[in-house]
Amino acid sequence: MTNAAATVLKPKRRFKLTKRVFSYPYVLFMLLFVVIPLVMILVNAFLDADNTLTLENFKDFFTDKSSLIILANSLLVGVITTAICLIIGYPLAYILSKMPSGRVLVLFYVLPMWVNFLIRTLATKAIFIAIDVPLGMGTVIFGMVYNYLPFMILPLHTTLSSIDRSYIEAAQDLGADSSTVFLKTVLPLSVSGIISGITMVFIPTISTFAISQLLSNGKIFLFGDSIQMKFEQGLYGVGSIMSLVMLVFVLISNFIINRASRKSGLSVGRSLW
Amino acid sequence: MKKRSLALLVLALVCVSSLTPLLAACNTAGGGITGGGADTLVIYNWEDYIDIGLLDEFAAYYRGVTGRSLSITYSTFDTNETMLTQVMRGETAVDVVCPSEYAIERLMRAGLLANQTELVTEFSKEYPDAFSNLDNVNKTVLGKIGETFGEMEIGDDVYDMRDYMVPYMWGTLGLLYNTRIISEEELEKYGWGMLWNESDNPELENMILMKDSVRDSYAAVVFYMEEYGLLPDGVSETYGKPYNELTANELINCTDKALLDAAEKLLTEQRERISGYEVDFGKDDMINEIVYLDLAWSGDALWAVEESEYDEETDTYQLGYYVPEKSNIWYDGWGILESSDSKLAAMMFIDYMCSPEAGARNIGYIGYTSAVDQEVMKYDYDAAQALLDVEYLWYANAEECEVYDDGAGNMLFRFEWVEGEEYYLDIDGDEVDVADEDALIPLELETDDDGYYLLPDGMKDSYPLDEEYIVCPDSISLFYYDEGRYPEITDNLGVMQDYGDANEDVVNMWQRAKAGGGVPSSLWWCLLAIVLFVGIVLGAYFLKEALKAKPRKLTNGTHSDTPSADDIT
Asked: What ipTM does the predicted assembly reach?
């Protein structure tokens, strides 16, 4: 037993079941399923079909006009979905946070999330077909909003309901009418919720592929669809580059969002995520 | 320190060991593991592409022949590309695979497949009777494969794919259509143009589904170009002759830039006129009449036709399958990997799959056309029994037909097409012209309580299909002479090869066609609507503020003028 011998040699260091030890399974999991795949994508991006080092993949992607248009489409769909989610979600979360039963009611908005999103999307498609709505961009955006709305409402509701009532009362005492109260106290105090809501919606929407494929019969072709097709057809190099581009966009949007939340400098109202 | 790393190791081990069965379960997903013993066989096949019971039976048969038990691992893939990645990167140890023709070509070019002709010669020394079923494979199909893949040049040598692969299932690419909307005359007139709604049928607009698959869509578009004279002018770089003189085979394998560009243009145009692209829901959408026309593979199409509504009065199904004059013929085949350690079991398995019974049972289970020759299956007892089980065949009933003797001792069955229009079939399902109906002698065959004809005593030894009853000749005719299931193999059917280096170009062309050019205008409208909405809300707020400020200024004005500036801000 070499291990036993080693312990005898170094009697001072004793094993302690510290908090750190409990993180090891997580670290191992992250290594196996996050870091290693990312490294594989990075390596694949520089390899061609015969596994030799090349930069051809980059050239292929950045000179292909259609890929760039598809990317622009995806970003636009992401922006539109996020905006609609915010426009619908904010008033809803605001009303719910003012109601005494809001905590229970918000559950109803989260409830659909317990059903697998593919099943929900297929059901949505069936409804559209039943009421003769032509499948296309409209239905895709509807599906996206429908799927990601809870992710917008939840952080907003958490932030809004944790705003101290006394701020609002103070504003009212100082003579502000209801719209001024909202604009000058509630809205600034809920910025952190808005930002986490936007993060939760925008980042997944720019990379979805199943919703767009199902709700448009494959006619709306987004960046996620394109990546999937590249991998399906064995074009691992270009597919990897596209995944990296996607990753860069996620990082950029994260960075912007972080900057915005730091700039606003508000820590009142905790965010859920 | 050591103890800590030991704890880490233990933790890691626990993690890995808890994950391993999970991963193993993933690997054998959909699989049935049979027995346990010395020999192993790993089969890698399409999803839902075999009668799973055959695996256990093969294991028993293998034990009977070799005296050794066999443990079979059956795993599945969903696209040729998945299979190719797994096998070519050596990620899974597999003995037998069953991909499509072009994937077999790619495996052969990578030098991964074993020469089966040599294997059979080698193993025949020890087991001379074990490979007799291989002869059952349809010779016409084999001939067709030989035309395209008979002389493959790989490196300096010439290879014949038929040495490396035994076909399993085959079929055509065609149009699955709704018989209420589209007439057969229309199909004959417009052919592949139907997918572009060349017939200008208003009911078809946005009611067409394409396959979400590069290869099948490309085949459809080049045939369409050929039919309508839309092929590019000039001479093909690959074949050195004008495009309009290319054969079906050359046409679908041509990836010249001029042809790709023309195809892209037409596919982009088509995008505006169709409902969408599918790979799996097309059959259901056709049956539910959500769409009226679908590009389909023969097996899927036949399945859909059988599932669709049947109108007794007009003897028509709601759906039909039509193969235009020129089309694509595809096949999937069994290959043995060079790296396999169980080549004997693999070769015997392939042989077992070529038995008439296995062929019939697979047809019953999958619905596709087996490569086992129909002439062999037709006279085989086990095959007939398997088809009777799945109701592709049924017993002759007195209500359905009358039995006659043609005077020479042959039985004839008289069926009625519609009222008053009759036709005669012999006992094997072949149609017979009867010149003089009066010369026929009616036969009084015994029937059971339900009206099914019992086999006469004198025929019990000679009738190959059943011991007790007569299999309805009409069902035999319907099954074996179905043009959808067993199309005539001519030069107008082309076999598709691997695109090779051009693969990326074709995929990119397909992506451009599917994505359409530019940003869809609906996106801009959406964005505009949102901006407008936000603008209106903000505008309303400021308007309100402005309106509110005015009367205050007025009332203030009566007392003093000083605070007015503060109020406005």
From this structure: 0.80
